[in-house]
Structures are given as C-alpha cells and as structure tokens.
Amino acid sequence: MTTTTLRNRLLALEAEPPKAWRATGAHSRPNLHGLLRYPAMMVPCMQGDIIDVILDHKPRHCRVLDPFVGSGTVMTEALMRDLNFTGIDINPLAALVCEAKAAIDAGADVEGAAQTVLSRLRLDVCEAIEVDFPGRTKWFDDESAAKFSILRRAIVHVEDKGARKVMWTVFAETVRLCSNSRTSTYKLHIRAPGDRVAADRVLQTFETNLRQSLVRVREYRALIKARGDKRPSVRIICDDARKAALEWPAADHQLLVTSPPYGDNQTTIPYGQFSYLAMRWIPEDDLPGAGATQLMANTNALDAASLGGTIRGAEEKEAALRAASRHFDAFVQEAERTDRKRAIRKVSSFISDFADALSHMRASSSGTAHWVLTTGNRTAAGLTVPFDAVCKDLVAGLGGKPIASLHRELPSKRMPSRNSQGVMITTETTTVVEFS
Ligand SMILES: C[S@@+](CC[C@H](N)C(=O)[O-])C[C@H]1O[C@@H](n2cnc3c(N)ncnc32)[C@H](O)[C@@H]1O
C-alpha cells in the first residue's frame, strides 16, 4: 500500500466514521477497557481501527509505544493484535492498572485471587483502620475507612503479584465510587452530605465491581484466544516520558500511538488528584516506579511533576519553542498583542515539556515509524491554544510527515480553570505521521 492509499483510507474513516466510534456508556468500553474509569480515555475501537489501517500498510510493524499510556487503552488494542507493547506514564496508579491488564493478558489467576479476596472479606470482623494520611477523615470517615481496611487486608493476601494488581484496580474503582470526592469532577472536591456513599455500601460496591471485572477478563481472554500460544511482550515504565525514553531501550518502536494531556494538569485534567486517594491505600511495594512516595506526598505533587507542572525556565523554553513552531509563535504574538503574555506561561511550559518528550521518542524510534497523536485544543486566558497545529510543526521539525488528520466531535469535557468557569474541549484531532 502506498502512502497515498494509506492517507485515502484514513480520510475515508474520517468521512464515514464507524458507528462504534460514537458509542457511549458501557458499550464504548468493552472488555479490559472498562476496568477503571480513568480521565480522558481514548475511544478504543477508533485507535484499533487506525492501527489496523497502518498495519495493512506496514505489516512488519510489531512494536508499539504509548508514552502517555494512562489506563492502557492503546495497550489493550495492541495486545489484542499480538503486537509487542511499551507504555510509559508518570502516574503510579495508571502504571499499576496497565500492569494489571498485562497480567490478565499473561494468564494470571484472577478467578483464584477473587475467591481469596471474597472469602477473606466474609471472615474479617476487625474494625482497625489500616492507613492514615493528612485529610483522611475528609475523604473517608472512620466507618468507611474501616471497610476499605477490610478490603486492603484481604487483597494483600493474594500471593500472585499480577492478580493482586487486578484486585487493586477494582479497589481503585471502588475508591472512585465510594470516597467523599465527587465522581463528576476529576479534582478532589468534597461531595455534598446528601450525596455521600454510606459505609455499609463499600464492600457491596467492591463485590459488584469485582464480578463485573471477572466478566470483562473472560471476554478479553476469549478475544485473544485466536493468538494461540503466542504472547506479545509488554513493558510498563512508570517514569517521566522525557527521561524514560532515553533510559529504557524498550521504548524503541515502529508505531507510537498516544493521547498526551491537553495541557498542564493543574489547569486541565488533574490526573494526580484523581489518583491520590486510591494510591494512599495501596501498599507502596505494589505501586510501580521508584517515586511513588514523593508523588503522593500531597494532593498536588503528582500534578506538579507532570508535563508543564512548573513554570521554572518558562521564558527560555518559550523562545526555543517559538523558533520550532510557527503556530506557537503566532499564538504568543496574539497573547502579546492582547496583553495576556503572563497568563499563558503554563501553556508555554507544558508545550515545551511535551516537545522535549517528543524529541526523546523520535531518538528512540526505529528509522521507519508511524505516529498517531490524538490531541485537543484547550483555551487559556481566553485564547484557543492551537495544540494540534503546534504538534504538526514539532513532528515536522523531527523529520516526520503528517499524512492525515481525523477530527472528532467530543462529548463535552470540562476542565478546572483558575476562575473555575471551566474550559471546554469540543473536538479532538488524531494526526497520523510518517517517518521514513
Ligand atoms: C490523556 S491521558 C492518557 C489517557 C490514555 N490514552 C487512556 O486512554 O487511558 C495523559 C497521560 O499522560 C500522563 N503524563 C503527564 N505527564 C507525563 C510525563 N511527564 N511523563 C509520562 N506521562 C505523563 C498522565 O499521567 C496521563 O495518564
């Protein structure tokens, strides 16, 4: 297949998107995709369909990388296609969920682990609270913390580490549903008293989640049966993508498929705040990466360590970025003209960090590679940030050729902003890039 045919096939997908791309609710997250509701998840079948078209063009592509892997949407789609996979994420909870999914793929005894946990839950009458951290009583009152402690004591008894990580994933989903933080926002935001989940629903919620997860595991295993005895290799790296790609040769890839954050976590999606409560309950030995203690030192630590988390050096970074991207330069000019330059420092910082990550990725990729980048244009200080166009400038600067962009309307994604009016992202763009 020539590059022109590849472009035409991708554009045909955009012109007539398969119905499944618009699915909502449970149908949009089949099998392992639905284990944990992580923020800003991709549409699994859309990424899978795009991967299939690229594989028709390059059947020898067999190593996939997602440097911002999140809960592993791309990972699951890659493994179902028998492709070797490397995922990177700075967030220990995201990396743990990916490791849980990898363990399911590798055949971990999840049913046995579930039996161990369920039988221990029934016997445990202890009322001790197993963890404490600043602000614990705000998010879990004593009664609820005692129930989560029962779950924790049961899960630590699961011997197989992979299967135990599946149990922690179910636990994290239970924390999302039953803590005193609202489920309607990814920020830690206290629920109104009438909206809180009673402590006596915690164990029942966990059990329901666990049973649904077992169905998902069976569904996934039936799907990968066609692979036979072959098992793709999986590597999950819990680290900053900017250094991970340099330090880990496993980041070598022919296909990079990812959705980076829309901007810095504090003013877009606070993945760290979303993950904080669950991480405080999970024993550190089970959290991937070396920096979990620091990253959960407070509710902001992980977000501050993520892309764009600091504005230190923002001016120098901005100057370099203006030279590398004409769309970014035009954006800054507009901010200068309208006296909003200071207000966009976080944007400059975020895009510079992202550019840094991309150049590391390119350095670790094989000569011929395809990249699939799904991005969204946020607003900052009332200006639309042309992140899609900036991305194209950046990949072109690395020698890549953008061959097609697919646009998709989004169900509304509201994000916290400083003045708390909310910033909306209404469309997402998926750009396919070829490096030859
Ligand atoms: C849009 S989310 C990815 C969601 C994923 N596609 C999914 O479907 O679940 C972006 C991810 O980038 C991660 N991230 C932010 N800064 C990072 C960094 N410096 N290095 C690696 N990952 C980072 C966040 O933790 C978050 O999980």
Describe what this molecule looks like in 3D.
The protein is α/β, with parallel strands linked by helices and 436 residues long. The chain has one domain (3-435): Rossmann fold. Helix content is 46%, strand content 14%. The protein is built from 17 helices and 9 strands. A 7-stranded mixed sheet has the order 3-2-1-4-5-9-8. A two-stranded antiparallel sheet has the order 6-7. A hairpin with a 7-residue loop joins strand 8 (401-415) and strand 9. Helix 5 packs across helix 8 and helix 14 (314-324) crosses helix 15 (326-337). The protein is globular. It starts with a helix and ends with a strand. The structure holds S-adenosylmethionine. S-adenosylmethionine is lined by residues 38, 40-42, 68, 70-71, 73, 88-91, 94, 240-242, 259-261, 271, 306-307. S-adenosylmethionine binds next to strand 2 and helix 10.
In brief, what are we looking at here?
The protein has 436 residues and is α/β, with parallel strands linked by helices. The chain has helices spanning 3-15, 44-57, 73-80, 92-105, 110-123, 136-139, 142-155, 161-178, 202-224, 241-247, 271-281, 292-295, 301-305, 314-324, 326-337, 345-363, 387-397, and strands at residues 63-66, 84-89, 234-238, 255-258, 369-376, 379-380, 383-384, 401-415, 423-435.
